[in-house]
Write a structure and sequence with these properties.
With about 170 residues, this protein is an all-alpha fold. It folds into two domains: about 70 residues, Alpha Horseshoe (Serine Threonine Protein Phosphatase 5, Tetratricopeptide repeat), CATH 1.25.40; about 100 residues, Serine Threonine Protein Phosphatase 5, Tetratricopeptide repeat, CATH 1.25.40.10. Helix content is about 75%, strand content about 0%. The longest helix has 22 residues. The chain is elongated and about 55 Å long.
Length: about 170
């Protein structure tokens, strides 16, 4: 069994309510493949799911530095940005999501989690505006299509409200 197959097997057997067996299964792979981007990412995700965000953070940063690519990179951005938000590092989380959205503009999940970060940071107008932008861009519906201009206009207006409150804009 190759490394990817083993990682897939461990991931398929995980119990989100008890991540310790998953972590215990991943640690020997980490010991023998400590620079493998996917191993670092999967271990970070396991610690994250277990509620150990500070530990997860280091593994996510290692996975990014090791050259994670493709869909795993997109997923790592979602999880890393969310971990930073959970740690109260809203500016860093927003930076991660900005980088991620630039790399993966077709991902509505990145936009949704970015909006969650904006909300957590007290930037409620920006969060609502971001969600409205996602609706316009990613919700295929004749009903939405009919009102795209109005929804986009409202998003711009709501976003402008934040700019009128300098204590919130950044």
């Amino acid at each position: 069994m190759n490394l990817d197959d083993e990682l897939d097997r461990i991931f398929a057997a995980r119990d989100r309510e008890n991540m310790q067996p998953t972590i215990d299964s991943l640690l020997p792979l980490y010991a023998s493949h400590s620079q493998n981007a996917r191993v670092l990412y999967e271990l970070g995700g396991a610690y994250d799911t277990a509620g150990q965000e500070e530990t997860a953070r280091g593994f996510y940063e290692g996975a990014l530095a090791a050259g994670l690519e493709g869909d795993l990179l997109r997923r790592c951005y979602v999880q890393y940005g969310s971990t930073l938000r959970n740690l109260g590092e809203y500016d860093k989380s927003r930076e991660v999501f900005a980088t991620a959205r630039s790399a993966f503009p077709e991902s509505p999940a990145l936009g949704a989690f970015e909006a969650i970060t904006l909300h957590a940071a007290g930037r409620h107008d920006a969060a609502v505006a971001a969600l409205l932008d996602l609706v316009v861009e990613f919700v295929p519906s004749p009903d939405i299509d009919r009102y795209k201009a109005a929804i986009s206009g409202n998003a711009a207006y709501i976003r402008s409200l934040e700019k009128k409150r300098p204590e919130l804009s950044a």
